[in-house]
Amino acid sequence: MAHVLEIKNLHAWYDESHVLHGVNLEVHEGEVVTLLGRNGAGRTTTLRAIMGLVGRATGSIRVNGNEAVGQPSHRIAHMGVGYCPEERGIFASLSAEENLLLPPKVKVRGEPMELDEIYQLFPNLKERAGSQGTRLSGGEQQMLAIARILRTGARLLLLDEISEGLAPVIVQTLSGMIKTLKKKGYTIVMVEQNFRFAAPLADRFYVMEHGQVVEHFAAAELTAKQALLKELLGI
Q1: Contact status, residue 28 vs residue 187, Cβ threshold 8 Å
Q2: What angle is formed at CA 160 by the lines to CA 185 and CA 214, rounded to 5 degrees?
Q3: At residue 39, what are phi and psi to the nearest 5 degrees?
């Protein structure tokens, strides 16, 4: 399988703070990969480093074979990467549909997902299309933030804590959405605190601690790794 994302010896800093210490990971086309770890382990910083949103980075981040370290964020987006940060970034002055139509298409192999297809994936958004962006519930705003990325044509999705603080019924919808996107050939890297949400979805897991990858295993090994995960994550 082709590498969509290949990270080698990645170090990252915010000002003087050295956060990532030689991260190595790889993601193949069509995979769902989850980064596990306690708060402060470096998982979100890894996603931000891929998007060029850290102060400084060294090492290598290759997206579809193209080097991303040292590139500005908009260039990385044009490599076909879509980032959904924890804060969502919904525009209050725009309706849900206007938020959805805002992003430009990026010059990548993937075609932007059509509105009809997005509304099929997220029926709630169709119902709330005319509502002001910030009048949507937390779950609907999360759906909108993900849907907006799909409108760009990005095929590598970086999703940061998308299930956090949401009602179980919304979490179930997001789970179905990830399964559907995987069937469509999207590649997904998730940072998740909610292990019950992430476990059935991921093909492989990386566990991070103190800015490093300390464990890496496939979904088939999950049962055998339970004791170790309890020790590392307290789950």
Answers
A1: yes
A2: 90
A3: -55, 135
What's the predicted TM-score (pTM) here?
Answer: 0.93
User: Do the Cβ atoms of 118 and 125 come closer than 8 Å?
Assistant: yes
Q: Which residue has the tokens 């956090």?
A: 164
Percent of the chain scoring above 90 in pLDDT: 68
* Non-local CB neighbours of 184 within 8 Å, separated by 6+ positions: none
Q: What single DSSP character describes residue 174?
A: H
User: Under a CB-based contact definition with an 8 Å cutoff, are residues 2 and 156 in contact?
Assistant: no
The pLDDT value given to residue 109: 61
Map residue 139 onto helix, strand or coil: helix
Evaluate whether 50 touches 27 at the Cβ level (below 8 Å).
no
Q: Which helix (H) or strand (E) holds 33?
A: strand 32-36
- For residue 214 the two structure tokens come to 């300390």
In this predicted model, what pLDDT tens digit does every residue of 10-45 receive, in sequence order?
Answer: 999 998 899 999 999 999 999 999 999 988 899 999
Contact in structure between 10 and 59 (CB atoms under 8 Å): yes
Point out which residues pair with 160 in neighbouring strands.
Answer: 191
Burial of residue 20, with CB atoms counted within 10 A of its CB: 0-12 exposed, 13-18 middle, 19 or more buried: buried
Query: DSSP secondary-structure letter at 131?
Result: S
- Comparing CA positions, the residue from 148, 153, 152, 142 lying closest to residue 194 is 142
Query: How many whole angstroms separate alpha carbon 77 and alpha carbon 173?
Result: 26
